[in-house]
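TA notes, week 10

Several of you asked for a full example with nothing omitted. So below is the full record: structure tokens for the whole chain, then the designed sequence directly under it. When grading your own attempts, check the secondary structure regions first.
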């Protein structure tokens, strides 16, 4: 390889730096398309130049962003598929593992999405991760930049730490998202691989509906009604909103319980609510594994919260092999 570098007149370091820049560009472009479609829903006639100064993407300047919008038919609102890949080079796609999947226990599926929040004429980014069964927000991150290091990576780390504090295992957990580049960045994939988390991606917005709805709930039902004048204000109110959502907002799907109440009841009782048609299989945890949430008293449920997915389902839906080194 050293001879090859010499023959083309570049150093090994310069070559890898260029590849890293290209990876950043591909990653950001994927997420920019998702965000532009979100912006189009709220601002159907906003021009590409105005969007550029609000989004301020890291990997491209104003003219490059306008060219990008032109090449992707994003210059005006059109009836088209919600998601389309910009360039297959370096783009990773995972199968949608939620199709026909019955979600019946916590830590079976986490769903995630990145949205924007407009403040003082510019956009900031909010990344959410929620448990698809309990609707609890496990991880989130407010950021000024759209890179993986500022969005999905810290949000996933927060979610993992949250479950580890609760002494829950993550075996066979499915992580579901849209096709944004921050969800297939090599650093993000190293983290999911470390905890044996299985990646899943949707092709259309409605295939990630719970995460999409969460964006609207936090922005429109909480943040919109607060006095927010700075990034620091936004961070404070986001922290408050997530806490209120998890601990005080009842959900119809949870039989009018809050996400935290639902999880505590689920873990204490070792079963689904009475309105559910089936109960998950319960398995004894390894020796020493105990978790007693508030309200359980002295009785500690020794449950395998993760619950193994059926072997045949995993074999049929196993994601494509990805080299994350």
């Amino acid at each position: 390889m050293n001879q090859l570098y010499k023959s083309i007149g570049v150093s090994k370091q310069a070559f890898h730096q260029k590849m890293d820049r290209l990876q950043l560009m591909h990653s950001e472009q994927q997420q920019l398309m998702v965000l532009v479609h979100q912006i189009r829903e709220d601002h159907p006639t906003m021009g590409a130049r105005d969007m550029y100064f609000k989004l301020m993407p890291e990997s491209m300047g104003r003219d490059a962003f306008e060219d990008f919008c032109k090449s992707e038919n994003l210059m005006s609102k059109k009836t088209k598929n919600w998601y389309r890949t910009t360039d297959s080079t370096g783009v990773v796609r995972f199968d949608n593992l939620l199709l026909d999947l019955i979600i019946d226990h916590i830590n079976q599926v986490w769903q995630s999405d990145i949205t924007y929040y407009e403040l003082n004429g510019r956009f900031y980014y909010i990344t959410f991760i929620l448990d698809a069964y309990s609707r609890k927000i496990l991880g989130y991150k407010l950021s000024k930049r759209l890179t993986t290091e500022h969005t999905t990576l810290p949000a996933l780390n927060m979610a993992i730490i949250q479950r580890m504090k609760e002494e829950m295992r993550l075996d066979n957990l499915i992580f579901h998202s849209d096709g944004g580049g921050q969800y297939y960045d090599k650093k993000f994939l190293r983290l999911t691989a470390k905890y044996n988390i299985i990646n899943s991606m949707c092709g259309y917005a409605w295939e990630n509906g719970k995460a999409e709805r969460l964006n609207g709930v936090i922005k429109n039902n909480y943040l919109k009604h607060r006095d927010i004048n700075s990034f620091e204000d936004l961070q404070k109110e986001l922290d408050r909103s997530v806490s209120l959502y998890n601990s005080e907002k009842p959900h119809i799907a949870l039989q009018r319980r809050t996400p935290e109440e639902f999880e505590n009841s689920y873990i204490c009782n070792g079963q689904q609510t009475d309105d559910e048609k089936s109960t998950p299989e319960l398995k004894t945890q390894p020796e020493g594994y105990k978790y007693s949430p508030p309200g359980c008293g002295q009785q500690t449920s020794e449950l395998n919260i993760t619950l193994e997915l059926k072997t045949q389902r995993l074999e049929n839906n196993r994601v494509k092999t990805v080299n994350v080194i």
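The chain has ten helices and five strands. Use that as a sanity check on your answer.
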